[in-house]
Design a protein that fits this description.
With 445 residues, this protein is an alpha/beta fold. Helices cover 41% and strands 11% of the residues. The chain contains 18 helices and ten strands. Strands 1-2-10-7-8-9 form a six-stranded mixed sheet, with helices on both faces. Strands 5-4-3-6 form a four-stranded parallel sheet, with helices on both faces. Strand 3, helix 5 and strand 4 form a beta-alpha-beta unit. Helix 4 crosses helix 5, helix 8 packs across helix 10 and helix 10 crosses helix 13. The structure holds ligand F0G.
């Protein structure tokens, strides 16, 4: 009781939530959801997840757990379009930093909590690079439905995120290792102690994350964009997006699906390596898993660990690899890797162009730029980059980029191969003297 079955007990593959659409009768057109805007006083309509309840109908409306997640923005950004290399008006940023805990994870957490409550769970656990744990801790503290247990790698999580876990009172276990180690341990611990697991191995998490795509479509007045570009870590989002579009197409609610680009950091590039270099494909469910085994053996033999400034996606063994491969097949996808330098430059452009994000989120913008440069994305295509987490999640990375303190720059970024901060907005140091202050303002404005 209280445990979620995430994998098939025979073959070990992760399970999916599958609906009997014939019986459930989803709406005949996507505009149906617009009528819910007029009922925003109802929690199920105010939530950007549960407004789409008919497309994730695994629980009765009365069983839904919501804290108002998913009230996020699709923002059209001309400055960022210019940076990426697109025509003005064609670049959109889906800003998931507006969620209650500051990242997209809340979309999935409300769905996981809904399921956890329905099966009588009392404790929930996750391993995290910081955002899942922040979200779990927040849902525990607000709803009081479950007690949270968090596993993090030591020194691997940004202070903004660690602060959230601690402040919301979750039991936080810092293990000597990285995310991949923590993930392995949390699976063992949850199984032994019968604790509900809320990592994205949990298929209900992905049901909630599908709604990010529904909101993108809603923001575009139900027009399908040409590209969705998303950072790839544990590959839950990309898997959920592929499932969302596959279902919408099967239901006849869209007539085409967008192409999907999943962006890894160079220092955590398992998907890129497997998909682009070694040509691993879903192949209708018959992927050649020996390619993966061989790659993981090589990682182990070389003692190679994930390492990137984008700590949220510092993951070498993505748990949703199979589902992501399926999504790439559904959406004719591509995978790219971007350096820490490219990530931070893109992040500075996003910050200067409107909405601030954390480093991992900016991988999507850096990836879109790389794909435009290659000509894979053409300048007049409509592109949506997912900004997965808020700027304040990782202030250290931002301040280090803009700093005038060379020691800080080197300690935080230089050691990762970041050479320059081309878009730095440096604070101006001035003595505490009115004339000097006015002189400095005139000089720099
Ligand atoms: N962006 C942010 C800000 C994240 O926190 C994560 C994942 C990702 C992107 C990658 O998403 O796993 O669906 O491919 N963070 C997880 C965590 C791993 O523990 O918070 P994904």
């Amino acid at each position: 009781m209280g445990e979620v079955l995430v994998a098939c007990q025979l073959c070990g593959s992760l399970v999916d939530v599958v609906y009997d659409w014939q019986r459930l009768r989803p709406p005949a057109s996507l505009d149906f959801f617009e009528s819910k805007w007029s009922r925003r006083h109802e929690p199920l309509c105010a939530s950007g997840v549960w407004r789409f309840h008919e497309l994730l109908p695994f629980a009765a409306p009365s069983a839904v757990v919501t804290i108002g997640e998913g009230q996020t923005l699709l923002h059209q950004s001309a400055p960022v379009a210019g940076y990426v290399g697109l025509k003005s008006g064609e670049l959109y940023l889906q800003y998931e930093g507006l969620n209650p805990s500051g990242s997209f994870k809340d979309n999935g957490m409300s769905a996981a909590f809904t399921h956890a409550r329905s099966i009588g769970a009392v404790r929930a656990a996750c391993a995290s690079t910081g955002n899942t744990s922040a979200s779990l801790a927040l849902y525990c503290s607000v709803t009081r439905l479950l007690k949270g247990l968090i596993f993090i790698g030591s020194g691997k999580i940004s202070y903004g995120k660690l602060a959230q876990a601690l402040d919301h009172g979750a039991l936080t276990v810092q293990i000597a290792g990285d995310f991949d180690d923590a993930m392995q341990r949390v699976k063992e611990v949850s199984q032994q102690l019968g604790i509900y697991l809320v990592n994205s191995v949990n298929p209900f998490r992905l049901e909630g994350q599908k709604t990010i795509m529904y909101r993108v479509l809603e923001g575009l007045r139900w027009q399908v964009p040409d590209w969705i570009v998303v950072p790839g870590g544990n590959l839950g989002n990309s898997s959920a997006f592929g499932k969302a579009f596959d279902e919408l197409r099967q239901l006849g609610l869209v007539d085409r699906v967008p192409r999907l680009a999943v962006i890894n950091a160079v220092g955590a590039n398992t998907l890129f390596e497997l998909y682009e270099t070694r040509r691993l494909r879903w192949n209708g469910g018959n992927a050649d898993w020996s390619i993966v085994d061989r790659y993981y053996d090589e990682l182990d033999q070389g003692g190679r660990r994930a390492s990137t400034i984008a700590s949220a996606i510092e993951i070498n063994r993505p748990v949703n690899l199979a589902k992501c491969l399926r999504a790439l097949e559904v959406c004719d996808g591509v995978v790219r890797e971007v350096s820490d330098q490219e990530i931070l430059d893109a992040k500075a452009q996003v910050g200067a162009g409107g909405l601030g994000c954390e480093p991992a989120s900016a991988a999507s913008v850096a990836g879109a730029r790389a794909l435009c440069r290659e000509g894979v994305i053409s300048t007049d295509e409509r592109v949506v980059c997912i900004l997965t987490g808020h700027q304040l999640k990782d202030p250290t990375a931002t301040v280090a980029y803009h700093t005038t303190d060379q020691t800080m720059f080197n300690e935080q970024l230089g050691r990762r191969g970041v050479k320059r901060a081309a878009f730095a907005n440096r604070a101006v140091a001035v003595s505490n003297n009115l004339e000097e202050i006015i002189k400095a303002i005139r000089l720099y404005s």
